[in-house]
Amino acid sequence: MSLDLTTDVVSLTRVLCDIESVSHHEQRIADDVEQALRGLDHLEVSRHGNSLVARTGLGRAERVVVAGHLDTVPLNDNLPVRDDGTYLHGLGTCDMKGGVAVALRLAATLPEPARDVTFCFYEAEEVDAVHNGLRKIAEATPELLAADFAVLMEPSDGVVEAGCQGTLRVDVVTRGERAHSARSWKGSNAIHAAADVLNRLTAYEPRRPVIDGLEYREGLNAVGIRGGVAGNVIPDEARVSVNFRFAPDRSLEQALDHVREVFDGYELEVTDADAGALPGLDRPAAADFVAAMGGEVNPKFGWTDVARFTTLGVPAVNYGPGDPMFAHKQDEHVPIAQLRSCEERMRAWLSGAQETTR
Questions:
Q1: Is 34 known to be catalytic?
Q2: Given 106, 157, 185, 304, which is the most exposed site by the fewest CB atoms within 10 A?
């Protein structure tokens, strides 16, 4: 399929969303994006798995990264996209093909920006960090992501969201002893033992720290439970999968220590972990971007690759169309007017305009 990057951002969003690209199945959309980008003479394009990097080389005094992921969570009877005149409804409209459409439009129609730009469109953001396309680029060719500032086009309801939470997933393991279920007293039920784990989670009171004037809300929640051998066997093992979303004033080590404290006495196995990112609003590049986008800034609830840019030493923020509260929901949608306004503001900023209108 040939993507027309000169079409309006609403139409482009719809076309991108109707290309199914659930995590680990991004090849088709990556092929289409690559074909469209390679037709632009002002960009140097490279492919990395199912991720693309496209860079201007104008010798400007400043370089910025504009990035977005190509994958989505699994379908939930929410494709093809529906346009009601006010919103586009469907998988990926909010998280985050609306933001990708904005970035692709800018890549195609802004051949001489005032800042050099590195556009990055990457795979596997919605799954475990080991698969993340941006992580792979950062580890293999970090020079491609070197920049003075980065904008991650994650949904932020059209305002800047600073920093991001860290995320930690652990299995809390309970042990027992197998026995025939007709003679259960001869064994010890590991699933029943998990009740105390759930009770601790129910009683848990999360922090709400204020960092740089922004209130972050932590959360510790069970996101899965499994156990059992057969319908007539007392289980000897059960696992409660617990996700800790922690404020960026905690390091990854501090977050793990906290979870260990909450589940003291239990065996823990870490299954996924990524540190968060502090707001960094004292950085001049971040402060200038916030001002250019209208001055409003909120905390980011959830982990994003802003944290990965922070690790690379690149100040970064989240900014894109769509209310993040609708990400991953069946009724995911994006306001059509917000798609257009985000493109307009980003275009003005990259062009070097000193003021944008909200």
A1: no
A2: 185
The full DSSP string for 2-17 is ---TTS-HHHHHHHHH
Look at residues 255, 73, 247, 74 and name the one whose alpha carbon lies nearest to residue 170: 255
Q: What is the pLDDT of residues 13-22, one digit of tens each?
A: 999 999 999 9
pLDDT one-digit tens code per residue, 189-222: 999 999 999 999 999 999 999 998 999 999 999 9
125 is an active site residue: yes
| 6 CB neighbour count, 10 Å cutoff | 10
pTM of the model: 0.84
Residues facing 211 on adjacent strands = 214
Distance CA 15, CA 347 (A): 21
Catalytic residue among 125, 126, 154, 171: 125
β-bridge pairing 219-227 and 237-246: antiparallel
User: How far apart (Å, rounded) are the C-alpha atoms in residues 263 and 266?
Assistant: 6
Q: Which of 32, 34, 71, 343 is the catalytic position?
A: 71
pLDDT recorded at residue 2: 80
